[in-house]
Amino acid sequence: MTVAAILNGKGRDVIAEKSGTLLSGICKVLAEKGIGAILVTDDESRIEGIISERDVVKAIGRQGAGALDLPVGDVMTRSVVTCVENDSINDVMTKMSQGRFRHVPVVKDGKVAGLISIGDVVKYRIAQVEQEAEHMRSYITTA
Ligand code: AMP
């Protein structure tokens, strides 16, 4: 199964902000949308960085509440690992576990085309395990 199959199920809309957005604004969006990370993009939807709840906690832990007045561009991770629609889910799982992060943006023609979270991957894995168990059950009962 590929990244495209997950995107076909969940959609391709991605929540993104500009690098000048203050960290307080990022927290508001994270809370309102119930998500764990936001992409930071330029005017052409090219990825400039990613900010996750972990970065927010780190910034406040280091600098105190004043960090909330920083632009997200000062706090985000700039070197973003991405994938393409034809990548397998296993590829994405490998990227997440090697990079120790829970979000992988999908890129098409240099622009953001979706976002895969660890929750999406877990959902896919559970469906896959259930399907394998079902195949095994029907094999045993018809053998
Ligand atoms: P997360 O586990 O996604 O909350 O992110 C943990 C850390 O990895 C944070 O510092 C994020 O900014 C960073 N991060 C998240 N996703 C990616 C990614 N796809 N590529 C590089 N860094 C990332």
Automatic annotation (TrEMBL):
Coiled coil: none annotated. It comes from the Bacteria. SMART domains: CBS (SM00116). Pfam families: CBS. CDD domains: CBS_pair_bac_euk. Keywords: CBS domain. Gene3D superfamilies: CBS-domain. InterPro entries: CBS_dom, CBS_dom_sf, CBSX3_CBS_dom, Diverse_CBS-Domain. This is CBS domain-containing protein.
